[in-house]
Design goal:
This protein has a single domain, classed as RutC-like (60s Ribosomal Protein L30, Chain: A, 2-Layer Sandwich), CATH 3.30.1330.40. Helices cover 34% and strands 22% of the residues. The protein contains four helices and five strands; from the N terminus they run ααββαβαββ. It has a five-stranded mixed β-sheet with strand order 1-2-5-3-4, with helices on one face. α1 packs across α2 (13-20) and α3 packs across α4.
Length: 163
Amino acid sequence: MSEAEATTAALGAVEQRLADLGLSLPEVAAPVAAYVPAAVAGGFVYTAGQLPFVKGQLPATGKVGAEVSAEDAKRYAELSIINALAAVKAQIGDLDRVTRIVKVVGFVASDPSFTGQPGVINGASELLGKVFGEAGIHARSAVGVAVLPLDAPVEVELIAEFA
């Protein structure tokens, strides 16, 4: 078995697709209050809201449309969904067990004049489509809010069905 084949086998198909995009799952982000990162009920994993932490730090703070650009916020939504996937994996052991991403909810800390929340949360949705294919197409809400925990610009949660 070649080194590339061994890496693919070790990662699983979903994580390999992430790796092909230059991405990897981080450690599960520690909760910032009294909750767990994800919970299983029936055949579903529900994640808590995930912030765009990178090695335990937020890459930016502030409102989208003011201190944070929509382009940057879209990347932060992608980081948030990667953190959500790490929480899912911690619950079910292997992302290849995910049969469908059912729903994504995205929150965007928005300047009062900013109305591009759907485009920001596309960062999460587009990544899910790339790594899960048809199973990554989901229902979604994208909501503008006044402020998020730790002054994060974006927070994302998801519901995933698994077998």
